[in-house]
Design goal:
326 residues, alpha/beta, 14% strand, binds uridine-5'-diphosphate, binds magnesium ion
Length: 326
């Protein structure tokens, strides 16, 4: 169903792209096949997050042929969370659906999300029936979600899917959260409003490789729990922890040796143990405080969450330079 320029579409599909040249054409065609015949209007808002491959030319080519396809090209790689934020803030649809273009989440289920939210919800998120990831990824992701829920008190399901739909009202509320370090899953869960979940099957990536390496996932996990920390401070904290543990063993060993065998210099053991223990404890606490200061530093600079280089086919621009493909 084609919408005219001035129309507010029923649905905005926000899709982040980072080196997705192998997936994009198939993704667009599968989405079209799944929803073109349905009685609602829609737009694609693709957000290019600094791709180095042919992603941008491929999308521009589609923009030129179909006015429902828009592209926001960011100036560099800002991360998926920033890319999604850019997309959501430019989505004008009555409902916004976010999904990845790698076809891990099935486009033929878009209609189920759309129908479900019509029942009066503000957010319909997805839980994945079976994760098609490797054992290592499954284990690390379970560990991550479990410990995150314990630390934050959020109740995020461990098998939370990427694909979700939400109302315009929900989107506006999301955009009021100003933080630079954006842990989207946490934000979505803390916004409130009426929500429900539907189960979806999860498939392997259609093509290309996952951009979330173990290292990147570890970083995301740290961000999510402490909001932000930088490496030296984390290192100091780890060093403190190692010192505390080592000095504890050290202390227990010397104290036992003293008690059982009466060996050791008088006063030496307790003094050295105390010095190492408290020294390490101070490092640990300093590192922890440093983590929070690192976060304040990032937030107080209040740098833009993302910067836009070009936009294509965006009908409702909010002041950014709109360079058309033509
Ligand atoms: N992505 C992004 N910026 C990044 C990393 C990833 O926009 O810095 C996009 C990527 O193109 C994809 C989505 O985020 O659309 C999810 O990435 P991926 O499929 O690699 O992650 P996984 O599904 O393996 O967790
Ligand atoms: Mg994926």
């Amino acid at each position: 169903m084609t919408s005219t320029c001035e129309d507010i579409p029923d649905l905005s599909l926000v899709v982040p792209l980072y080196d997705e040249q192998e997936c994009i054409v198939e993704f667009i065609s599968q989405v079209r096949l799944s929803i073109d015949h349905l009685p609602f209007t829609y737009e694609f808002i693709f957000v290019d997050d600094g791709s180095q491959d042919q992603t941008v030319p491929i999308v521009i080519d589609h923009c030129e042929k179909d006015s429902r396809i828009a592209l926001i090209q960011l100036t560099r790689n800002f991360g998926k969370e920033a890319a999604l934020t850019a997309g959501i803030s430019h989505a004008k649809g009555q409902y916004v659906l976010i999904m990845d273009p790698d076809l891990q989440d099935p486009p033929e289920r878009i209609v189920d999300f759309y129908n479900k939210i019509q029942e009066g919800y503000d957010l319909v998120f997805s839980t994945r029936l079976e994760k098609s990831d490797s054992l290592l990824r499954k284990l690390t992701s379970q560990l991550f979600w479990k410990s995150l829920n314990v630390v934050t008190g959020l109740k995020i399901p461990a098998n939370l899917g990427v694909m979700r739909i939400f109302s315009h009202k929900f989107a506006q509320e999301f955009l009021r959260y100003p933080e630079r370090v954006r842990f989207i899953e946490g934000l979505f869960m803390s916004i409130g409003m009426k929500r429900t979940a539907i189960e979806i099957e999860n498939r392997p990536r259609f093509a290309g490789v996952s951009k979330f390496t173990l290292k990147r996932r570890f970083k995301l996990a740290t961000n999510a729990m402490l909001a932000f920390s930088d490496l030296p401070l984390r290192f100091v904290a780890s060093l403190g922890l190692v010192g505390v543990l080592a000095s504890s063993f050290f202390g227990i060993f010397f104290v036992l040796r003293k008690m059982l065998f009466n060996e050791g210099l008088l006063g030496w053991t307790s003094t050295v143990t105390m010095i190492i223990f408290f020294g390490s404890l101070q490092l640990l606490v300093l590192g922890l405080i440093g983590n929070y200061i690192g976060r304040i530093y990032t937030e107080i600079k209040a740098r833009p969450i993302y910067s836009i280089y070009h936009t294509f086919n965006l009908k409702h621009d909010k002041g950014e330079k709109n360079v058309d493909a033509s």
